[in-house]
Every structure is written in structure tokens, then in C-alpha cells.
Amino acid sequence: MISSDYQDVLRGRYQHLPDVRSKVVRIFLSSTFSDTMVERDSLIENVFPKLKSYCREKYGLEFQYADMRWGIPTESNNNHSETETCLKEIELCQKYSVATNFVVLLGHRYGCRPTPATIRASLFEQLYSIICSDINDKDDAQLLSQWYQLDTNCIPAVYILRAISSVLPKILSLDTNEVKRAEKEWKKINTRIRTRLRQAATKCLEQQQIQENEYDDFFVSVTEKEIINGILSVPNANERTLCFLREFEDIHEHLSDNKASKYIDLEYLNDGTPIIDNEVEKLLNRLKYTRIPNVLQSENIYKYKIHWTSKGINRDDHIQHIKQFNNDFYHAIQQQIDQCVQSRIMPVSDPLHHEIIEHAIQCKTYVAKFHGRTDILNSARYIMFS
């Protein structure tokens, strides 16, 4: 018996079409950079080729991965769109992957916590007012005015952090020395802006003038934002996402080692003594031990404890860990592919149905981009014939 949806398609009614049937398994790999390099290298060399072969040979699918830690275009850094670039890539993986679409690797690092690229206009003005009210912060208020620009084209209106090159053009210079000087200057400016915005946001939260999610936007890392979009806010996280947690059992005893700062977030006392960044550690622990486990079942979370070495993690001292990690990663992805792929790909038992659906989806795609001018044509017709 022909389903009502199939009959609608045959009659040219395309309101209830299925999603575009992708033939891709596309995974967004979320992580911090310096502390997970060995694992990510090993995935590229040993695991991804096997998954690529498995997908192609068993299901005729293409396996792809997106690892933004291997480089984001310079322009994204200049116009502060790195976070947006990463989040858009997550959306693409969620849209087109027929199985796993997001995997996070976490260690002791929380990740970069950038200055917000956009701030809701009314909120920015609240923050600006708080900063202006402090007589000692007039310079910081002026700095905010210089770097944030009102954009009324957005609805609601927002303040946008200006491109670095619009104020410090030498950051795009071909002279490496000029670039370094500009980057150093921007780092100082950025730190001042970020610090003052966080202080003002904290006052707003205390006075209940700001929502907690907006407050978090000034403090959370890019990695946590990726996890929010990739795991915490999706309905099918346990079917499409995975989490791998790797910790050094004794890293807190080796904070003075040269490599330690690459694996854990540190602050330094006046005498140069390294200590744990407590604010960042609290945010990371909340993410690892509360937020992620509240959404993902234990079968989707893989945990590893390894010993610290003066070289950090390396393939010689941690060969067994890397082998275990590779094996767990491969079989976890393979299992999700097997569970998901059959339900996402339409059987080819009815070639005519398949062909009609393909044409209907293509038609709907083109129509979505079409903007008619009926009102203008009617006005022209009225003028011509009146």
C-alpha cells in the first residue's frame, strides 16, 4: 500500500519531504590543541584510514572528519570569527553525517576563552554604563567604544568587535616583525577588554540584570561552546556523539616541568611559581564531571588515566594508552555507524520512489532560494493598464 507521504510527493506536494539523504559519515573532532596533538596525529595515521575503508566497503559511504585545531584561516582570526567558523562546521556535520557527527577529546586544558565577537546591544550598553561609572575605568570605557561598533542591521541590534586590522593594520603586514609587534599590542588590548567585560558581567549577574547563559558567554571556552552545540543541546547525543577523557594521574606534582603548561592551565605567582588556574579548573571540572555525564550515558564516555613524563604524552612512554585509545575510538565509531546507517539511508527496493524523492528534494532546495517580486509586478501591471 502506498503511504500518504508518497502519494503527496507523486502529486507534487513537497511539504513533508525527508531530510537530504547524505552518503557521508562526517565527524567534528573537538579538542584543545597542544595537549591532544599525539592522540589526534594517531587518529589521522591509524584510525581514520580504517574507518574510511570500513564505511566505503560495507555501506558505500564516504568518511570525513573536521579538525579545526589544524588551522583556521588568518581572516577568521582577524575578524574574530573563529568560534563561529567552528560552530558552523558542527552544524554541517550534524546535517550531513548519517551516523557519528561529534567527538570530543578532553584532558586538563579548558581551551581558549575569547572576548565575545558580538554582544546584544542592550546588554553591551548595560556593561558599558557599569564600566563608565567607575572613575578609574574611563580609559577602558574609551577602549570599548573604540573596538565595539553598533550594528543595527542585526535584529535585535548587536555590538560587533571590530576586525583587528581596522585599528592595527600592521597585523596583516608582510613584515614578520611588524606583525609580531601588532600581535603583542592586540594581546594587551584584548586582555583589558576581556577583563573589564567579565567584571561588568559579574556585577550584572549579581544584580540579576543578565541571564546566566549570557553571563557564561564571557567566561566559557571555545571548546565548551563546541560541546554545548555538539552534545549538550542535541536530542540524539547518545546515538551520534562520543567523549574521550584523558588525565595524568600525577601532573599536579610536576607543574614546574617545562612541558606542564602545554597540558594544564596555569597561573604564575610574582616569583614565577606556577599554580593551577582555579577559575578555569572549576569550569573544566563542571564540564567533564557534571554537564557531559548529565547528557551522555556512560557507554559513550571513555576515560583514561596515564602517568606523567617530562615530555608530556609521547608515543614511546604511552604506547599502550595510544593503542587502547585508537582501538576504543575505532570500535565506538564503528558501532554507531552500524546502528545509525540503516535507519538513515532509504532502501533502494523501490527505485522509482527513490528517484522521485531525489528530484523533489532538489526542487525544494532551489525553491527555498527563490524570492519572487509579486508585489512589484502587480504594481507595474497596475500602472501599465490603469
Q: What is the CA-CA span between the terminal residues?
A: 54 Å
The strand line-up of the biggest sheet is 2-1-3-7-10
User: Which bin fits the share of residues in helices?
Assistant: 40-55%
Structural class: alpha/beta
Q: Using only CA atoms, what is the Rg?
A: 25 Å
Q: Using the alpha-carbon principal axes, give the shape.
A: globular
Total domains: 3
Give the class-level CATH name of the largest domain.
Answer: Alpha Beta
Strand content: 5-15%
Low-confidence stretches: none
Which fold name fills CATH's third level, the topology of the largest domain? Answer: Rossmann fold
Output the helix-strand order.
HEHEHHEEHHEEHHHHHEEEHEHHH
Keywords:
386 residues, alpha/beta, Rossmann fold, five-stranded parallel sheet, three-stranded antiparallel sheet, 13% strand, DUF4062 domain-containing protein, NACHT-WD_repeat
Could you explain how this protein is built, in words?
The chain is α/β, with parallel strands linked by helices. It has three domains: 212 residues, Rossmann fold (3-Layer(aba) Sandwich), CATH 3.40.50; 99 residues, no CATH class; 40 residues, no CATH class. Helix content is 52%, strand content 13%. It contains 15 helices and ten strands. The strands form three sheets. A five-stranded parallel β-sheet has the order 2-1-3-7-10, sandwiched between helices. It has a three-stranded antiparallel β-sheet with strand order 4-6-5. It has a two-stranded antiparallel ribbon with strand order 8-9. Strand 8 and strand 9 form a beta hairpin. Helix 2 runs parallel beside helix 13. It is globular. The termini are far apart. The mean pLDDT is 89. Pfam families: DUF4062 (PF13271). InterPro entries: DUF4062, NACHT-WD_repeat. This is DUF4062 domain-containing protein.
